[in-house]
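R.M. (postdoc): so does anyone remember the format we settled on? I'll just put the structure tokens first.
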């Protein structure tokens, strides 16, 4: 599955899954390459991947190429090959959990058919039932945990937390099914109130009523950081294929700010650019199916409009947040500021640096330690408000 604009036939009708898989594959590849860099120093490296709800779900390709299982293994193999080509080697272990009998049989078929450097192991049953075993398998090594349930049951924060607590380098990517959550988050039935509390890790507190989309995910980010011992969390919106609304959101969390830099770069590439052509194709196919008429061939927008709504809001709000944070602390290093802002704003680190540089040129803030020939914001730059005479 490449990054071209044409959606493979097996993904037609479920373009949101294609975009989700593109994000997962891009992130896993960068994650594997970054953490595998330790092997250059001659140190032993073992990376671990965990798919907590492996499926395969809705696979249409005979070789299961349209599943998270296959694409994750492809990304991990590619990361290992990158370092192998430079004379370094890394060990990679992948663990897959699936409870459905037929899906587990298909999972075993996929794993048995593959060859390569990634060692795999499958567990049948509920993810929560195997958490302790998988945790022991991970030891203290770097791990990437993928949580992609079909709803929300079984994906409660307290089930995810143990897999993230042991190692210093642990990342998690959770698919929060916004369509489902939004429909039932305010439902008064007691069992649903309990399920919502557990999914969001609210302990004895009930879900605050009437939360909008942004408030809902701000809450989830806070809770996953609180319970999972991770320092940084951000999310992106996977759009509905043919409507101007969110289908679900992917929430990333990690213990190093690099997780945010990588995630926002992938968001811009996949959700910002690729999604425009993906959704244009889906809309055209839906119109043709509805009317029987071939649509006029038009170039898709350069940026997906759903993503652009988030991005434009971020560009508008970021200057205010920059001034507020600098004002609270008098001075702040860019290295300390950008992770805070990338958590909440749909901007890349480079885009945020450009906003700050523009504010500097306009006299709104100053960069106290900027060298004469520097023309961009660096991590060690110290930002301060301009003092009026």
């Amino acid at each position: 599955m490449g990054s071209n604009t044409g959606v493979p036939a097996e993904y037609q009708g479920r373009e949101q899954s294609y975009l989700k898989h593109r994000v997962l594959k891009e992130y896993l590849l960068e994650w594997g390459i970054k953490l595998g860099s330790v092997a250059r120093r001659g140190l032993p490296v073992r990376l671990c991947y965990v798919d907590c709800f492996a499926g395969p779900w809705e696979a249409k390709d005979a070789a299961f190429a349209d599943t998270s299982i296959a694409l994750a293994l492809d990304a991990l193999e590619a990361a290992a090959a990158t370092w192998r080509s430079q004379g370094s080697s890394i060990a990679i272990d992948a663990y897959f959990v699936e409870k459905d009998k037929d899906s587990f049989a298909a999972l075993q078929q996929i794993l048995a058919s593959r060859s390569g450097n990634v060692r795999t192991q499958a567990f049948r049953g509920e993810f929560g039932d195997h958490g302790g075993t998988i945790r022991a398998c991970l030891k203290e090594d770097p791990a990437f945990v993928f949580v992609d349930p079909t709803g929300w049951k079984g994906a409660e924060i307290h089930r995810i937390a143990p897999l993230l607590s042991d190692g210093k380098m642990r990342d998690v990517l959770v698919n929060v099914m916004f369509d489902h959550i939004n429909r039932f988050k305010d439902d008064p039935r007691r069992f649903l109130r309990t399920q919502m509390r557990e999914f969001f890790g609210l302990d004895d507190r009930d879900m605050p009523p009437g939360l909008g989309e942004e408030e809902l995910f701000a809450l989830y980010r806070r809770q996953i950081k609180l319970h999972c011992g991770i320092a940084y969390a951000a999310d992106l919106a996977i759009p509905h294929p043919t409507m101007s609304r969110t289908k679900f959101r992917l929430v990333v969390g990690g213990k190093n700010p690099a997780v945010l830099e990588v995630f926002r770069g992938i968001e811009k590439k996949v959700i910002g650019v690729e999604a425009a052509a993906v959704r244009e194709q889906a809309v055209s196919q839906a119109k043709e199916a509805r009317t029987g008429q071939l649509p006029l061939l038009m170039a898709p927008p350069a940026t997906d409009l759903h993503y652009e709504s988030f991005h434009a809001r971020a560009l508008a709000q970021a200057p205010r947040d920059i001034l507020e944070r600098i004002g609270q602390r008098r001075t702040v290093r860019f290295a300390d500021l950008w992770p805070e802002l990338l958590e909440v704003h749909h901007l890349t680190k480079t885009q945020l640096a450009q906003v700050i540089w523009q504010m500097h040129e306009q006299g709104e803030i100053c960069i106290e330690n900027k060298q004469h020939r520097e023309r961009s914001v660096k991590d060690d730059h110290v930002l301060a408000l301009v003092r009026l005479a």
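R.M.: ...and that's the designed sequence above, right after the tokens. Also worth knowing: The chain has a mean pLDDT of 92. The chain has twelve helices and ten strands.
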